[in-house]
Structures are given as C-alpha cells and as structure tokens.
Amino acid sequence: MSLINTNRTTNGAAAIGARAKDAAVQAIPVGKRAGTTAVQGVRQGVQGAKEWAAPRVEDAVLGAKEWAAPRLEDAVLGAREWAAPRLEDAAEAVDTTVAPKVSSALRSTAAQVRPSVTKRTGIRRLLDWRLLVGVGVAVAAAGAGAAVTMRRRYASATAEAKNATESSEDEPGTQAGDSVSDAAAGSDVNGRVTTPGM
Hints:
By secondary structure, the protein is mostly helical. It has four helices and no strands.
C-alpha cells in the first residue's frame, strides 16, 4: 500500500465526517422545531378533544340521571310495597309462634331459679337478717330511752341542787358549807338526791 492511498482514505473519511457533522448541526434545529410543532399539535388535539367531549359527557350524565331517577324511585317504591306485607306477616308469626315459646321458657326458668320455701328452724331462724335488724332496732331504741331518762334525772338533780343552794342563802343563820355537805351526803352515785333520814 502506498502512502498516497492512506492519505486519500483519511482525507475522504475526514470530509465525510465533516459533511455528516454539518448535516447533524442542520438537522438538530429542524428536529427541535418538528418536536415543538408535534407537542403543540398534541396539546391542541387534547384541548380540542376536551372541548368536544365535555358537553357530550355532561349531556350523557344528565341524560343518565334523568333516565335513572324515575326508575330508581319506582324500584324503591316497589321494594317498599313488596316488603311491608312480608314484615307484617313476620311480626304476626313472631307473636303467634315465637313469643309464646319465649314466654314459656322464661316462666320455666323463673320457676327453676325461685328458691324452694323451707321453714327455717334453730340457728337459721336466729341468723335471719330480718330478726337481726329487728333486735338491733330494739336495742337502739332501749339505749335512746335510757339516755333520755338519764339526762332528765341529771337535769332534775341539778335543778334541785340549785334550788337547795338558793334557799339556804336566803335563810339567815345557815352556812353555805353545811348545805353543800348535806346535799353531797344526800346524793347517790347515779345523780338522785335523797332526803336525809330515809
């Protein structure tokens, strides 16, 4: 091979590459313009499709509503007309068949649960809560009566002692010490005052 052939091939390839590069440089803006035009065309097509479809979809929805509303009302009315007598029949069936059975079952259960009446004797009768409550009330009443009686006795003894001291002060010639010792000698532990000589 000669050197001339190699240079020609190299120069030819460089020229072909330069021409390809120039063609690519010229093709890029053309491709960009074509892409932009295509995008704008698609956008316009979508917008046009939306504008064309919107009123038709609204009309279709409105038409479906207008068509379905009376049919739906008729269906609901028909279902109610069908269900009402069946519900009444079911209620009557429950009254005549189920209710007596339930009532009977409840009565028999109540009879089984109710305790048998047995007479209590001995310690059971003594431990009956009603008896215990009655005894407690009686004891409380007796205690209250005793407290009232003691209070009255204390009040009367105090009044008698006061009267005795006042009367001895009124009489001349008696000393207060004698009357106090006499009153102390004549009183009991429980507050009763007795007259001397008894």
